[in-house]
Structure formats: C-alpha cells, structure tokens
Amino acid sequence: xxxxxxxxxxxxxxxxxxxxxxxxxxxxxxxxxxxxxxxxxxxxxxxxxxxxxxxxxxxxxxxxxxxxxxxxxxxxxxxxxxxxxxxxxxxxxxxxxxxxxxxxxxxxxxxxxxxxxxxxxxxxxxxxxxxxx
Length: 133
What we know:
Helix content is about 55%, strand content about 5%. The chain is mainly α. The chain has one domain (about 10-115). Strands 1-2 form a two-stranded parallel sheet. Helix 1 (about 15-35) packs antiparallel against helix 2 (about 45-60). The longest helix is centred in the C-terminal third of the chain and has 21 residues, at about 80-100. The protein is globular and about 65 Å long. It starts with a strand and ends with a helix. The model has no long low-confidence stretch (mean pLDDT about 80).
C-alpha cells in the first residue's frame, strides 16, 4: 500500500490537534499509573516532563491541523530519547486504550489511514544580483 500525499493546509479550529493532545495525555496518564510510578500527583515528574514536551511539539507542528500521526510524519520533531519514551508509553498504553478510552483509540486508528500531507514549498533563494538591487 503506497502513501497518498495531500496538500498542506491549516484549519484554524485545530480540532485534530486537540484530539491528539487528549489522546497522548490519556496514554501518559495510563502509563504513569500502570507502571507503578509512586508519586500520586496527576503525573510523576518524568511523565509530566514527557507530557509537556509532547504538548510543545503538538503546538508547534508545522502541519497545523493537517498533522498526521507522528509515526507517519515526514518531519521528526521529537528528539531521539523523547521519541523512544513516547514509543514505550504508546506500546504499553495502546492496547489498553480500546477498553479505557475507546473513542480516542478508534479516532487515532482512523487518523492513521488519512493521507500524509507534504511540506509547503520553500521560497527560492535570492541570487546575489537580486539582493544588490
């Protein structure tokens, strides 16, 4: 199966990004609670740091609301160590999402089937002669 590419667009309402944020928050909460992290605040410090990082990455996503799932994205904005932490969380929480948060899990799986957007074209570099004028 080949990936389809769609043109870059941004929706001002950011519905998909808000849903992606809810999904990652649910997964991190489930992982933190289920992994025996001892602090009983909403999240332990390590999981809270991971959640803040994921939130910043979502807010700054170059695709806006046309954002694909991170696993399918052509731009890897997560650092290598954070990407591995998120993979660990998703591997643990993913199968459990269907029971605890079925709507979020199903919409996340449906988003995997959406076409992957391409990056907007970069403007052509200006030549030295154009800059002198």
